[in-house]
Structure formats: C-alpha cells, structure tokens
Specification:
The protein is an all-alpha fold. The chain has helices at 3-36, 53-60, 73-76, 82-91, 93-103, 121-140, 144-160, 167-186, 193-207, 213-232, 235-242, 244-249, 260-273, 276-293, 311-316, 318-350, 358-362, and strands at 383-385, 392-395, 437-438. Strands 1-2-3 form a 3-stranded antiparallel β-sheet, covered by helices on one side.
C-alpha cells in the first residue's frame, strides 16, 4: 500500500473515530438530558370543602394537652388519679369542643406538596387518645352514654383521616380506630341497653363513611406526581434511597452524608439508570392496575401485578399489598363490633341472645347485618355462632374458609419463634392466618 493510501486510511480512521466518539458523546448527553427531564404532572381537580374539617382540627390541636405527656405505652396503662384526669379534661374542653365541631364537617386531607410535610399525623392519633381518655373519665363517673360517645368519636377521627389522603393517612386512621374500639371492647360486659343501642346506631353510620381503598390508591398515585419529582431533584433523598443498607446499620438511622459533589454524582448515576419519566410512567401504569384490583372484593382479586424493576417501585410499592388486606381486616373488625353492640343490646332487653342475626333486623337493633369482606363474593353477611351465653359473630377471615367460629390462633412469629400463650400476638390477624376472626377475641 502506498504512502498516499496510508494517509487516506488514517484520515478515514480518524474521522470515523471522531464521528463515533461524537455519536457516543451525543447519546450520553441525550441520555443524561432525558434522565433529568421532569415528567408532565396531571393532577385531578379536587373540590376543597369550605369549611374543611382538616382546618378545624388544626385549630383544635394547640388547645389540647396530652395528660400522658411523654410516657410510654406501658406507662399509659397506669392512669393518673381520676381528679387529675378530670382537671386535664377541663383544661382541654375548648380543644375537644373544636375537634367535635370538626367531626360534623366534611373532611378532605390536603395534598402533600412537600416531601417533608407530615400533616400532623401524630396529632390525630393523640386526639383519638384524648377522646379515649375522656371516655374513661365519663365511664368512671357513671356516664356510660357519654363514654361510648367519646370512644366512637375516637373511631370517627380514624374514619375521616383517609378522605382525600394517601396510604399513610389510612394507616394512621387504623390506629385511631383501634384506640376507640379497644376501650369499647374493654367494657363490653358493662354497657347498658341505652349506650349499646346508641353505639350500634353510630357505628352503622360510620361504616357508610369508610373511604374505598381504590380511592386511597388513586390519591397515592396523584401525590406521587408531586413527591417523586421532589425526591429525584434532591441529591440527599436520592442518596438515602440508594444507600438504605448504610442507613439501617448506622446509629439512629442518621449516617453522615458525603460531600455535596458526591451526592450530585450519585444523583446523576441514579437518574442515568432510572430516568424520571420512565420511573413515573411505569409507576402510574402499575398504580392503575392496583386501583382496578382493589375495586374488587378480597376473594375476587387477582394476584398483584408484577412490580416495575426500578429502585423506587421496589422500595415504595410493597407496602400497598399490606395496606390492602389490612383494610379488609379493619372493615371486618368494625362490622363485628357493630354486630356485637346490637347483640348485647338485644340481650340487655330480652335476657338472652337472639337465635340468629336476622332477628336483630326485625327487632330494629340493626338496619342490616354487615357483610363479611372476606366472603366469597364480598356480599355474604357476617356469620353467627349461637350458643347461649357464648354466642358471637365472626368473619371467615383471610383464609376464606368458614371454620364455624374457631378463632385465629398464631403459634409462631414470622421468623419461626414460638409465641407465648399469654401474648396478644397469638390472636392478631395476619394474611397467612388460619381460622375465623372472632368478635371480641381477634381484635387486631
């Protein structure tokens, strides 16, 4: 080959190398640009009620003092003297009045437009405890009707919370409901006919106000359109997401962060692998499937759709399946309490339990027998075991099998450790539990 041909080949090789390099650089630049392009945000329009109960609660919170202070849950079991609790309730009278006014208003949780905002979730749970404390004082003073009103007010706080909110509001709402239900069950043998009938009526009204789970997931999807871009644009949040193992191993879950440039490089590497638009698009598609899935009753739901393989989805989405069946359990517990109050009211008036639950309808103790959310089509009423003094209502539970009222008993923890015989964990309802959810026994 002549020298001229050699020069020509070198020229061509250099130009091809330059072109290839430019093409690769352009592709990388395009990928980086695409990775940082925000996805379009489409939020459904919401009509905010005026007045909004949420705002009324915010006015009530500063006027409430927790009589338990910073005590632990175990310490709360040891109540202060009655006179001290009466004084605390008198001090909190204005705040409780404002909160009760909120219970009469339409409630819509505001959108969480900042990932740092927590919407005062702990304060709602503290309010439920305030109503529970008030109920205890009223009961000890002989006001049983007032007491059951207070406990059901605690439950209603939990019922209101998820309206317009996302999964975190739903879970905090469950906690508020449990606070009120626990105290009603605690006194279940001590209520009189009047308080039992009032409790039944109010519980039936509250069950109509439960927010459908598909609405909660719709709200969750909407809020992600705001919170996910904020997460992507915050190098610190991206670092915490991509280094969860280091955070878990650190003291107080607060590891020291690297230099700012390291955070930003980590952020760009993350977005290069998981572009914003791609993550949000796949997230939205998955949520649409979840929303449709949870419009169906428990027994008719298909298996959960396959998770998107990005880090965001695999970190955040698994909690959805837990929230799903926990809502079914909560529905069952609410309905079992309602039926039990009606059964007890009937017994208080007639001296014995009815032979069947339909009697509660004909005798005007119930408008209708609540359906069992775990039944084969989600429309079969709660079951009833009639056995003189041991009569009780039950749900067939997550295994979908009618065990004739044999309660759920868990013998082992998820890690295989044996559960002590006197532990409440033995009666907690789990997705894998076998047996029926029995009123008054399987309370969580």
């Amino acid at each position: 080959m002549s020298s001229r041909e050699n020069r020509t080949m070198r020229f061509i090789t250099q130009r091809l190398g330059l072109i290839t390099g430019c093409a690769i650089a352009g592709a990388l630049a395009g990928r980086i640009y695409y990775s940082n392009v925000d996805a379009p945000v489409h939020l459904p329009e919401r009509i905010i009620p005026s007045p909004n109960a949420y705002d009324s609660y915010l006015k009530a919170f500063p006027k409430l003092r927790d009589i338990h202070g910073s005590t632990t849950i175990d310490q709360r079991q040891k109540l202060p003297p009655l006179a001290e609790r009466q004084a605390a309730l008198a001090e909190n009278a204005e705040g409780l009045q404002l909160a009760r006014f909120a219970l009469t208003q339409q409630y819509l949780a505001p959108r969480q437009d900042n990932i740092e905002v927590n919407r005062s979730w702990a304060k709602f749970r503290a309010l439920a405890r305030q109503f529970s404390d008030e109920g205890e004082v009223r009961f000890e003073m002989g006001d049983k009707t007032g007491a059951i009103n207070s406990y059901i007010d605690a439950i209603q706080v939990g019922i209101q919370m998820p309206n317009g909110g996302s999964i975190i509001e739903l879970l905090v709402g469950f906690a508020c409901e449990a606070i009120g239900r626990k105290q009603i069950w605690k006194r279940i043998d001590q209520w009189d006919s009047q308080s039992l009938k009032l409790g039944t009526q109010k519980m039936e009204e509250l069950m109509k106000k439960k927010v459908p789970l598909s609405d909660i997931f719709t709200n969750e999807k909407s809020e992600a359109q705001i919170s996910l871009p904020q997460l992507f644009n915050d190098p610190k949040s991206v670092w915490e997401l991509t280094h969860t193992d280091q955070i878990a191993d650190s003291e107080d879950n607060q590891p020291s962060l690297p230099a700012d440039w390291v955070l930003r490089v980590n952020q760009q590497m993350f977005l290069f692998r998981y572009p914003k638009r791609s993550i949000i698009s796949r997230y939205n598609a998955y949520m649409d499937q979840i929303i449709e899935l949870y419009k169906k009753p428990y027994a008719l739901r298909d298996t959960l759709p396959t998770l998107p393989d990005d880090l965001i989805s695999t970190t955040l989405i698994p909690v959805f399946s837990q929230a799903g069946w926990k809502d079914d359990v909560d529905q069952a517990l609410m309905r079992l309490l309602t039926v039990t109050l009606a059964l007890r009211a009937y017994k208080a008036d007639h001296g014995a339990f009815p032979a069947n639950l339909d009697t509660l309808i004909t005798e005007k103790y119930l408008v209708q027998v609540p359906v069992d959310p775990f039944s084969s089509n989600g429309a079969i009423p709660m079951r009833y075991r009639f056995d003189n003094e041991k009569s009780y209502a039950y749900s067939i539970g997550p295994d979908g099998v009618d065990n004739d009222g044999q309660e759920i008993i868990n013998l082992r923890e998820a890690n295989g450790d044996a559960i002590k015989q006197d532990s409440p964990q033995r009666y907690h309802v789990r997705l894998e539990s076998r047996g029926d959810i029995v009123a008054g026994l399987n309370l969580y």
